[in-house]
Amino acid sequence: MPSPNLTTLPVEILIQIASYLDTPNYQAFRLTCRGIEDSLFRAFAQQYFRKIQFMRTEYSLRALVDISKSRLSSYLKHVVITTHLLGPRSPSARPRPWSIESDTREEKYSRMCDDQAVFLSTGYDQDMLVEAFRNLKLEVVGIHTQPSHYLYHGPSSYGISHIERETSINIRHETTFPAESDRRTKHAGCVQNVLIALGKSGSAPKRFEVDMYNSKFGDDAFNIPPFMEKAVSPVLSNLEAVYVRFHPYAALTKRLIAPQGQSPSKIETYHLRIFLSWLTQVKHLHIQSPRQPQRFFEWFAAPVSNEDYDGPPGLEPPRSPALPMLYELEISQVELHSFHLLSIVKKFSATLRKLSFSKSLLITCDSGATHVYNAWPGFIAQFSRVGSCLTELFLNEIDVGIGRGLAAMRFKDGSYSFSYAGPDMKTVLGDLATSVHLEADSSEPEDGDVEEDWSGSEYENGLVDFDFEDFVDEYDDLLDEIDQDLNDDTNEDFMIETFFGLGQ
Predict the structure, then answer these.
(1) How far apart are CA 166 and CA 108, in angstroms?
(2) Cross-strand pairs, 126
(3) Which of 191, 227, 316, 462 could be 309's S-S partner, Cβ–Cβ 3.0 to 4.6 Å?
């Protein structure tokens, strides 16, 4: 009887053994022999190749193309493209004293910056994305802005470690940005190039994510000019889930519109509104931190209009979206009037069954009007009637009121979160009128203090004179000097390079 060895073990036990190994050792374990490699391949591919993040450089997207042509292609379902742009380093970040070695590394990095700029300006990134997407059956495609290095400890894009290995420059610890105007164009172009690549390749993902929280650029990325519509409209009309996340202080471009019978005005979410109108099949929508949230959600909740526009040519406002299949809606980090929330639920009541509202301010009364505690029961009474269509509800960290009259929504179990799933939503909502404790804001002014009028939007009024970008830039410089111990996540690069022989 032959002695037992690894090749005689059941696959389930081999997978269990591999689960205790880090990526380099897992890879070494797989390569011990052909039998073990065959046994572990599926588990290995599902663990490491289901979702991968890439940056817009030739060597990163080349890995994506190579994966799309390999036997791993059937396992890759979720691709994230980051907007990471290489830029000049500050002189203070360069090593001293100068040496041939340090000058050589700086020169390598400078050439990588130039190469990425040419790569993007010539459209090669779109060509490579088309080639890769054509070979893949993707379920989710995301675009993420590069994270602030001092807040981010997660996995990096494939290609980051390649840069650091070639140049000995740890770009995860540094803020290296191109010129501001160049950044704005290329951040927007990333979303548009990905959409065009999906259209040209015939790819039809069901979920599309745009996470701009780590940059202060806004809905320019959602600009779909007429020449793009033929390629992009089939992609957008096929989507079933869309995730949109802005930075709350995003410096958005204002567009002039002239609604029917009203004076012209400017809005900051023009392109986002047009984008949403293309989503005819969407069932799940997540919106976080749009600018001018009151105006945006007033538009979002408005009835669908089919009237012909007879205002000034070129100033037609975006029409409120129909979203005839909307089943789940998530709203987060906004200031929202209770009337608009009720209108949204009522508008989509035929299909809407799941509602999530979190980390937001719910304005239940006008400035100087009824106190929040008196307005709350009336709101709940209306919500219980309108919200009876729902089968699932999630509330988390909600403040109620306006200005200095804020109160935190605390539930009977003492937490600031509430969830319910079931058929008796009307009764459950009605109980919130008495079961919710509105916890007054502890920062009330002392007697004799002068109380300022903060009755408007916190973002639009209270912070209008605050230069957030300068603050963040200065804070970044400070943290560059302090934060020297971020996670060194090179596992994905090691795994991809070992498998494909890249980076040698």
Answers:
(1) 8
(2) none
(3) 316
The predicted pLDDT at position 147 comes to 54
**What letters, b where the CB count within 10 A reaches 16 and e where it falls short, cover 132-143?**
bbebbebbbbbb
- Alpha carbon separation from 302 to 207, 348, 356, 457, 501 (Å, rounded): 25, 11, 20, 20, 55
How far apart (Å, rounded) are the C-alpha atoms in residues 125 and 137?
19
**Phi and psi, residue 61, nearest 5°:** -70, -25
For residues 22 and 158, state if they share a domain: no
Half-sphere exposure of 229 (CA within 13 A, CB side): 8
Q: Are strands 407-410 and 354-363 parallel, antiparallel or unpaired?
A: unpaired
CA angle 151, 212, 395 (to 5 degrees): 80
- pLDDT given for residue 155 in this prediction: 58
Q: Which domain holds residue 30?
A: 6-46
**Distances in Å between the alpha carbon of 449 and those of 401, 445, 446, 467?**
21, 6, 5, 27
Q: Which of 140, 123, 272 is nearest to 203 (CA)?
A: 140
pLDDT of residue 482 exceeding 70:
no
Q: How far is CA 437 from CA 360, 377, 399, 411, in A?
A: 17, 12, 11, 6
Inside any domain, residue 391: no
Q: Name the residue with tokens 């807040």.
A: 151
DSSP codes joined into one string, 319-338: PPP--TT--EEEEES-EEEH
Q: Count of residues for the chain?
A: 504
Residues 230 and 322 in one domain: yes
Whole-angstrom distance, CA of residue 185 vs CA of residue 187: 6
Specify whether the CB–CB gap between 297 and 339 falls below 8 A.
no
Q: 223 in a domain, yes or no?
A: yes
CA atoms in the 13 A half-sphere facing the CB of 477: 9
Same domain, 152 and 290: yes
The Cα–Cα gap between 173 and 411 comes to: 42
Rounded distance between C-alpha atoms, residue 28 and residue 254, angstroms: 55
In terms of domains, do 242 and 341 share one?
A: yes
Reported as a single tens digit per residue, the pLDDT across 265-274 is 898 889 999 9
Give residue 242's identity as a one-letter amino acid code: V
Is 301 or 370 the better-scoring residue by pLDDT?
301
Residue 56 sits in the same domain as residue 36 = no
- Cβ–Cβ under 8 Å, residues 177 and 85: yes
As a whole-number percent, the residues of the chain with pLDDT over 90 amount to 46
Q: What is the residue type of 77? A: K
Q: Which residues are paired to 354 by β-bridges?
A: 328, 392
Q: What is the average pLDDT across 224-252?
A: 90
Structurally, the chain folds into a number of domains equal to 2
Which structure tokens are listed for 489? 């996540």
Q: What's this model's pTM, rounded to 2 decimal places?
A: 0.82
For residue 247, what pLDDT is reported? 80
